[in-house]
Structure formats: structure tokens, C-alpha cells
Specification:
The longest helix is centred in the N-terminal third of the chain and has 18 residues. The termini are close together. This protein has about 100 residues and is an alpha+beta fold. The chain has 3 helices and 4 strands, in the order E-H-E-E-H-H-E. It has a 4-stranded antiparallel beta sheet.
């Protein structure tokens, strides 16, 4: 199982557009990607701070997600909204007996 959070800051003047794009992307993912186990954007503490939480059963499902028409259309519109780089933080189960764990 793959589980990660990407953290980033959005420019103040782009926040409304970013939220619009994130909402549109989330709706497409949830409607058309049964292999995507979890996908949601959140506000984080601090001005313009956001995270996206993603989970996939395996790398193939993650790559499939990144190859969809909505991802390839919407994400390039989101990137100019970022104020600096994003940071991706992966999480790994503590115990291989956790449901869905491949550890």
C-alpha cells in the first residue's frame, strides 16, 4: 500500500483558483478511479498552507492516477499557484498485520 501527504503553500492571489481546481480534480478522482483508495485536499495550519492525502494499493494504481486525462489537464494548472516547492511525505504501516499492508 502507498500512503502519502504532499504539503505546499499556495500564493494568496491564487487561493480561490487553486481550491476550484483541487475540488474539480477530487471529484474526477472519486468518480472515476476505483483503485485510488483515498484522495482529499485539506487546509493546513498557516496562511496558504494545504496538503493532499493520497493512498493507492500499489505503484501501478498511483501511475494510473497520474496518467488520467483529468490529472494531466488539471495539475499543470495548479502548479503555478504554488509558492515554492511541495514536499511529499510517505507513511508506512508499523505492523504487517495491518489490513491492506504490504510491509
Amino acid at each position: 500500500m502507498i500512503f502519502f501527504i504532499s504539503r505546499f503553500t499556495v500564493k494568496p492571489e491564487c487561493e480561490a483558483e487553486f481550491i476550484r481546481l483541487a475540488t474539480a480534480l477530487t471529484e474526477k478522482v472519486r468518480a472515476h478511479e476505483p483503485k485510488t483508495l483515498y484522495y482529499a485536499f485539506y487546509r493546513a495550519d498557516g496562511p496558504g498552507r494545504f496538503v493532499v492525502v493520497e493512498s493507492f494499493p500499489d505503484e501501478a494504481a498511483e501511475h494510473e492516477h497520474q496518467s488520467t486525462p483529468w490529472f494531466t489537464q488539471i495539475v499543470p494548472q495548479m502548479i503555478p499557484c504554488f509558492d515554492g516547492p511541495y514536499v511529499r511525505e510517505y507513511f508506512h504501516p508499523l505492523n504487517a498485520s495491518v489490513k491492506g499492508s504490504t510491509a
